[in-house]
Design a protein that fits this description.
The protein is mostly beta strands and 341 residues long. It has two domains: 153 residues, TIM Barrel (Alpha-Beta Barrel), CATH 3.20.20; 170 residues, Endonuclease - Pi-scei, Chain A, domain 1, CATH 2.170.16. Strands 9, 10, 11, 12, 13, 14, 15, 16, 17 and 20 form a ten-stranded antiparallel beta sheet that branches. The chain has an eight-stranded mixed barrel with strand order 1-2-3-4-5-6-7-8, surrounded by four helices. Strands 18-19 form a two-stranded antiparallel sheet. Strand 4 and strand 5 form a beta hairpin. Helix 1 packs parallel to helix 5 and helix 2 runs parallel beside helix 3.
Length: 341
Amino acid sequence: MARERVVVRPVAHDPAERAAILARARIRGFRRFVLAEAEAAESADPSEILREVEHGFRDPTGAVVPVVRVASEAELAAAVTATGAAGTLAVEWTADRVIPLENAVAARRDRFALWTVARTPREVPGALGALEHGADLVIVEIRTPEEIDELERLVEGPLPAALDWQWAPLTGVAPAGVGDRVLVDTTSLLRPEEGLLVGSAAAYLFHVPSEAEGSRFSRPRPFRVNAGAAHSYVLRPDGTTRYLSELEPGDAVLVATPDGPVRSVRVGRIKVERRPLVVLTVLDGKISRTLFAQEAESVRVTTDKGRESTATVRAGVRIRGVRLPPARHLGVAIEEAIEER
């Protein structure tokens, strides 16, 4: 939940511009802010507000946290030593920022809270992910409302607390000609039980596992999901869907384990190639749902008998998938009457 560790700090001087920044940040799901001493905290939780003070911030308890400007290894070491157990170290880097933050993360050993100031949205992902853990809070300077849009693209919101997992009987598997199928190669290593949620209709998405197992004639590709035909939906971490054909390097997709944890991973590469397809049809209640996938031993779906390949799976098993709100506008769930066939 990286967005929960981001604090928006408007640095525009014009009050109207500052108000516009705060309004857009709230719309985009940001809840933590740095405000001037007398600035109104409209529609904001007081426990999430830091106040500007000279050379630092005042936290909701009234404690003042000074910002330490660090330009050298010696200055960082002195700042870490001076921070007591259960205290807070807030750092503004005046030279290098990536390696020094990693050193600070390693040095704290959970003894104290670590805050860092980011000058631009672009610096935020590195600050959140330093040594995998990152800073406890990243206070990012925002100059225009448009920078909020950039910040939203760079950091992720909370993942779904729960997915509506279902079993649906597989009623048919049939050849579907040759079509464009999409390989999604991620920048993360996936476990065999992890996969993407993909389907022809947003109302029911099939669990398509990774290629971490391989086959007798192909080596494991633990970063890859052979996801399906180009028209298919794929679920993203924020609950929106996107067509597989629209995915680009750097996009976030949701990786799920049936009835288990979910996580966000980034797309590293997309490969679209023409391959023989099969169409898998399940019965979701009284409605037929389909998945068009490449016919191959290394491409699998999750069934009640385990992970079965699209080359051998047959009607009679049950397929694992997720039920979602069916109506979508540009991938966002909306309330309207819809029928997808």
